[in-house]
Amino acid sequence: MSNFTAEFIGTALLILLGNGVVANVVLNQTKGNNAGWIVITFGWGMAVFVAVFTVTEYSGAHINPAVTLGLAAAGVFEWAKVPVYILAQMLGAAFGALLVWLFYRQHVEITEDQDAKLAIFSTIPALRSPLNNMISEIIGTFVLVFAVLYIAAPSFTSADFSSDTEFGLGALGALPVALLVFSIGLSLGGTTGYAINPARDLGPRLMHQILPVHKKRDSDWRYAWVPVVGPSIGGVLAGLSYLLLQ
How far apart, in whole angstroms, are the C-alpha atoms of residue 150 and residue 208? Predict the structure, then answer.
């Protein structure tokens, strides 16, 4: 499996299961309706576990442009590969969002809350404040990427870029990363919904714009830059911090 295919599949799985749990909680007449924040954060953690476990052998399971940028900034991933990885992640996220919409389409149609319909695609801040929302995304993503770098450190201690997967969490690494994302959601997710992943937000937001979602609202493009720029900054800062501490 190529790096591109693996990142596409991994990110699609991430969004299918991650946005899927959001849909299960917020849409009307689902079995999980109103199950609450704990279910969403745990579901996202398990989505990360499945995605990482599935494709880490083939691409290192970045499944997140912020992780890819952070690894490149840390000097453990080739900058030349960054565009291919990010393109695959964006396309995979869009495809995953399409699958969520197809899966829950009947429930979307009987849900009147337009914000809930947007929430199954992209994040919405609890209190809208671009500066504070940006800070939240930077800090949350910094924690994610910084911790991932140390979780995966043995795989690139002597990296020479001779392999397509010089960064790799390995099967056992999937569980710590899942718990990491679960922790971030519980502790740092209350302000913005913890996008902490530009592809996770932008790809599905584009699908919300394009798809014939029943009685949808606008796709909130005024906010869309925050979950792209914030995580990108946080990822790079984490990578540079890791590099400086070596």
Answer: 35
